[in-house]
Design goal:
Layout lengths: L1 E3 L4 E2 L15 E5 L1 H12 L6 E5 L9 H13 L1 H13 L8 E2 L4 H9 L4 H8 L4 E7 L7 H8 L4 E5 L10
Parallel strand pairs: 1-3, 3-4, 4-6, 6-7
Antiparallel strand pairs: 2-5
Helix pairs in contact: 1-5, 2-3, 2-4
């Protein structure tokens, strides 16, 4: 299994153990990592049976002012921005200890401005890859309703009613 971590995170796959398919033919990603996993699955020539997207970063329904605010907050004080970001990811639960990796403004920009398209999803599905999407319906980070609506035609979408961005249930 190939796993892509979320923005500024490492070893975050432990949060998804109950859902992960550990087959060597599975590609998975969380949040920003879901973008990277989908891009990899679309471009890869090797066999991929399953693409698992956990809380895929879905901001294409957000206004430009939201994106500029995020970028400005990160540029002004990245440590404070990341603290607030993690608080939102775990809300309404307390922040669980997690390993931070490197982060940069370019990656945040990619995350905020990435647009999921039908062409991308169809190119993955046309390869015979099964797509699974997992969404926490109390996620305070992404547009969960917009994501669910977008992914339903292409994937099996599992909506976890009382779960946050990390799919932890309260």
């Amino acid at each position: 299994m190939r796993f892509y971590s979320g923005f500024s995170l490492v070893n975050d796959q432990v949060f998804f153990e109950n859902y992960l398919n550990h087959s060597e033919y599975t590609v998975a990603g969380f949040s920003y990592g879901a973008i990277k996993a989908a891009q990899y699955a679309a471009e890869a020539y090797e066999r991929i049976d399953t693409l698992q997207l956990f809380s895929p970063a879905f901001f294409q329904t957000k206004k430009e002012s939201f994106r500029r605010l995020q970028m400005g907050g990160y540029s002004k004080d990245s440590a404070r921005y990341l603290d607030g970001f993690l608080t939102s990811c775990f809300a309404p639960l307390p922040v669980t200890p997690i390993t931070l990796g490197s982060s940069d403004a370019e990656s945040l920009h990619q995350l905020l401005y990435f647009e999921w398209t039908s062409e991308l999803m169809e190119s993955i599905r046309d390869k015979g890859t099964r797509i699974e999407v997992y969404l926490g319906m109390q996620d305070q980070v992404i547009d969960v309703v917009g994501a669910r609506e977008f992914f339903l035609p292409y994937a099996t979408v599992t909506s976890i009613k009382k779960a946050n961005h990390f799919l932890q249930e309260n």
